[in-house]
Write a structure and sequence with these properties.
By secondary structure, this protein is α/β, with parallel strands linked by helices. It has helices at residues 3-9, 22-31, 46-55, 74-80, 96-101, 103-123, 143-157, 184-194, 212-225, 241-252, 324-331, 335-339; strands at 13-17, 38-43, 64-68, 86-89, 128-134, 168-174, 176-178, 198-200, 206-211, 230-234, 238-240, 265-267, 279-281, 289-291, 295-298, 307-308, 314-315. It has a domain at 3-176 and 209-236 and 279-315: Rossmann fold.
Length: 342
């Protein structure tokens, strides 16, 4: 990221909800490269906070603050927000089957929790709020997607009732983050290590995919660029999950002293609420679209560095797929990290 991003965060206090998760913790690490005053890491998992604290132990005293709390707890998030300039809301229930089986728990976190964070931003006159969303919010077919769509609506509609408060609200929507907790990648790694069949739900299933550092960097960039009420959609490569499984077998099996030929891909059928393809933008949303090399932006007004776009939808089954050899090249820099996922 260029110098202008560092200048934006100079001497600011930034709060990251879900700050010990896959995306949240990477946002924290990237923010700490800037000359900011403090990063507040807000999450409910004590053990994850301890682990991240150990990883960041060399930071100057007071530059990193760990806050135990849940965005469901309105009083707690209001207290955590005092004196904050910028908020990245990465706290969420994101596992599709668990949201299907526990729908109101998903509502409490993804909907009511987001409302709490939005209200706390307004009350504390926060400069910018960035909500981290998902492709599953576009034309949702499951509980997780429906709750994340509501969260987007809450975040973007906040501008309508902020009154004299200065907070700028925006959202960032992206697909699967490679290797994140709860994703299919750690499962594949474990199955390959154990010599079991690698389970794919549907041979034709396609997914947008992005590495964690890239996703976190673009979330931060979108936040800096936002002027209010934008929905940023990150551009990502697309692959078949079946091709990903085969590439991981080819590259990882020898690292676990196994022959690739002895591990098969087994098709097991789609899970509850699971889509065959991913949709990052619908035709109904494509009213006023701008783009640059890294992002598409649904916005009521132009943004610096963006041009008008003719994009009408953005779905994984209509994008150019990565070839098997391209997937292998995508995986190679991550092999050592993949071994440590389990």
């Amino acid at each position: 990221m260029d110098k202008s991003y560092a200048n934006y965060f100079k001497d600011k206090v930034v709060l990251v909800t879900g700050g010990t998760g896959s995306i949240g913790s990477e946002i924290v690490r990237k923010l700490l490269a800037f000359p900011l005053k403090q990063v507040r890491i807000f999450s409910r998992d004590e053990f994850k906070q301890y682990n991240l604290g150990m990883a960041l132990k060399d930071q100057p005293a007071g530059r990193v603050s760990f806050l135990i709390g849940d965005i469901r707890d309105r009083d707690r998030i209001f207290l955590a927000m005092e004196g904050v300039n910028v908020v990245f809301n990465a706290a969420a229930m994101k596992h599709v089957p668990l949201c299907e089986y526990n729908p109101f728990e998903a509502v409490k976190t993804n909907v009511l929790g987001t409302q709490n964070v939005v209200d706390a931003c307004r009350a504390n006159n926060v400069e910018k709020f960035v909500h981290v969303s998902t492709d599953k919010a576009a034309f949702p077919s499951n509980v997780m997607g429906a709750t994340k769509l509501l969260a987007e609506k809450i975040a973007l509609a906040a501008a309508n009732y902020k009154g004299p408060h200065k907070t700028i609200y925006s959202c960032v929507r992206f697909g699967n983050v490679f290797g994140s907790r709860g994703s299919v990648v750690p499962l594949f790694v474990q199955q390959i290590r154990d010599g079991n069949s690698v389970t794919v739900t549907d041979k034709e299933m396609t997914r947008f995919i992005m590495r964690i550092p890239e996703a976190a960097e673009l979330v931060i960039k979108a936040g800096v660029l936002s002027n209010g009420e934008e929905l940023f959609i990150l551009k990502m490569p697309v692959m078949k999950i079946n091709d990903l499984a085969n590439a991981m077998i080819d590259l990882l099996a020898p690292r676990f002293n196994r022959r690739p030929g002895e591990i098969e891909v087994k098709i097991i059928g789609r899970r509850d609420g699971e889509k065959l393809y991913e949709l990052l933008m619908t035709e109904d949303e494509a009213g006023s679209i701008y783009e640059n090399d890294e992002m598409i932006c649904i916005s009521k007004k132009p943004l610096d560095g963006f041009i008008q776009s003719k994009t009408k939808n953005y779905r994984s089954d209509q994008c150019q797929l990565m070839k098997p050899e391209e997937i292998r090249e995508f995986l190679k820099p991550s092999l050592e990290a993949l071994e440590k996922l389990i």
